Amino acid sequence: MKKNKVFSLFLSICLVSCTTFIREQYASPIQLVGNSGEYIILPTKTGTGYLIKNREGNKEVLGLPYVTEEELIIIAGQEILMQPVDYGESRITITNNSLVNLSPEDQARANAEALKVNQAVKQVTQQTDFNFDFFPPVQNFITSGYGKKRFINGNPRSPHLALDIDGNEGDPIYAPKAGVVVIAEEHFYSGKMMLINHGGGLFTSYSHMSDWVAEEGDYVEAKELIGKVGSSGRVTGPHLHWVVYLNGNRINPELLVDLQYYQD
Predict the structure, then answer these.
(1) What residues form DSSP beta bridges with 60?
(2) Helix (H) or strand (E) holding 43
């Protein structure tokens, strides 16, 4: 059974079991409950999320934000009680201090690059397909999961809202879905990176590449070669740092593909 179907089943069960508790805690009845960094599937189209069309009718997928405590949010007019998830933590050591404690110039560059990406992923454009099926961009093991609390050289940093997939320098990276390359450039943290717009508010990004194969403005098909694994930017070794954005939220890519964790 695919992970999105498992999540839909979990959501249905949670809606039933959690309703009494939710009504007691909040003045107005809450209809939906979601987990940090996951997504929900609604039976009606709001124009905010990613549209799915099948024999059961039209549905819409909406990404949920990463939260660290219980929080009531509104997405597409829907009240959703968000639940935190303990994704664990990640501790890494970076010996090059200039990549940890940035100079004013590097900090300004990193901020500008982050702003460019954040503005790009707010767009909602026409979709090229109407399913929520994904192909793994790299066929390898997960080395670091989504949502981990990060510590770099012992200091707390922003959470890891991506999936790190193992790879060797030059290994192929494939498009998980059809879309248009909207950014393909070198960034301070991400190194050689790429951002693909799949339409419907769905974007995927690829960081630390050794080279691009697709270029900015290219339309790519699902499973098409788009680049190569590398170790550019701020990294400790070659791998793919894969981010999935849905209606502006960075969701857990592990829910979308069938990959196993690396075992020591």
Answers:
(1) 42, 51
(2) none
Mind spelling out the 3-state secondary structure of 148-186? EEEEECCEEEEEECCEEEECCCCCEEECCCCEEEEEEEE
Residue 48 scores a pLDDT above 50? yes
Domains of the chain by start residue, with CATH? 3-83 (no CATH), 89-255 (2.70.70.10)
Q: 183-202: b or e for each residue (b if 16 or more CB lie within 10 Å)?
A: bbeebbbbbbbbbbbbbbbb
Residue 117 is predicted with a pLDDT of 98
Partners of 163 in the β-ladder: 242
Instruction: Write down how long the chain is.
Output: 264
**Which tens digit of pLDDT belongs to each residue from 79-138?**
999 999 999 988 888 778 777 788 999 999 999 999 999 999 999 999 989 999 999 999
